[in-house]
Design brief:
By secondary structure, the chain is α/β, with parallel strands linked by helices. The protein contains 13 helices and 19 strands. The C terminus is likely disordered. One of its GO terms (molecular function) is metal ion binding.
Length: 406
Amino acid sequence: MRPTPPRQAVILAGGRGTRLQPLTLTRPKPMVVFHGKPFLEYIVEMLRDQGIERILMLLGYLPGVITDHFGDGSRLGVSIEYDITDPDDLTAHRVLHAADRIDETFLLLYCDNYWPMRLDDMWARFVASGADGQVTVYANEDRFSKDSVIVGPDGFVDVFDRTRTTPGLKGIEISYAILRKSAVLPLLPTDRQELFEQAVYPALARAHRLGAYWSGHRYYSVGNLDRLPVTDEFLARRPAILLDRDGVLNARAPRAEYVRRAQDLRPLPGAAQAVGRLTRAGYRVIVVSNQAGIGRGVMTEADLAAVNDRLRAEVAQAGGRIDAIYHCPHDWDAGCACRKPAPGMLFQAQRDWHLDLTRTLFVGDDPRDAEAARAAGCPFQMVGPGRSLADIVDRALGAPLQETGT
């Protein structure tokens, strides 16, 4: 029988949240409100949408604030249960206390991190690895926080260091862990003052039993007051769309040639008008484009800037706005992380604009665009003969792209 992804999530949500005071004087930290609902509700909704059916919340501090809000979970389409221990107990004890209520294979989350997970993809990696546990690791290219792991070339965690002092650390463990209970429970101490991740992850790493699911998509946190502004912007969920340039907005040059001069740009029929409709509907429009002509020496950054300025002007005449243009200047075989089908430009746009890529459509005209979208977790649509950007905006996406007049 083919193994199926976990259907239970266990959320560690018992701490006092002292770094969020005074906000946490009257509520646990995951109950801080963004845009009309608590942070934890966004997590629950994402879990539900990813196929999680049952959630076990491990509580301690002010548990009634959480239980009163969520109840049995039926309002949100899931089943929610609670296990309550002392507010000063640490997370290893919370898991041990609830062990009889935890499935053999389960998903473990910290209550203060939101990361747009793709459970099916995570599960495929976990099954293929044969590991006893798998943690999600943020690549941390932007130095968002201090690194905490070393991941080997085989995709297994070689070092987990919660103190973040070991030389050579690269990547941040952010939970969203798939775990086998039978491998975890023997590692949990009876000491109430031990952290789960400190008790379990170094031991699994030493045994070469802890896989890593690597992601360039930033996570968003309520771990301290400094993180709240960007988390607020992320959870505002302003709509955005990612577009390839050549072949989507303007005609492609012949293979191995490039649009090198502004006067050579030929906007595709209806493309500028489609961007105008997106802009008026409140969408951010972001372009991501391979431009190997720079790396090959047949055009310059200044040439590209002039072409892009012409494109922006054409779009502006139609009432639209291109909010950002990202390009990879490297040659075809440079091995960089930004040239599509690599997802580097999409992740850069995500970090700069606080996008949720799982909710952000990418429109391209090439299989490499589709591969980049898949690697980044974006929904994707392809333009081609008989199907233009205007067609996608008008018909395929339907209601989400209808103009609102704002």
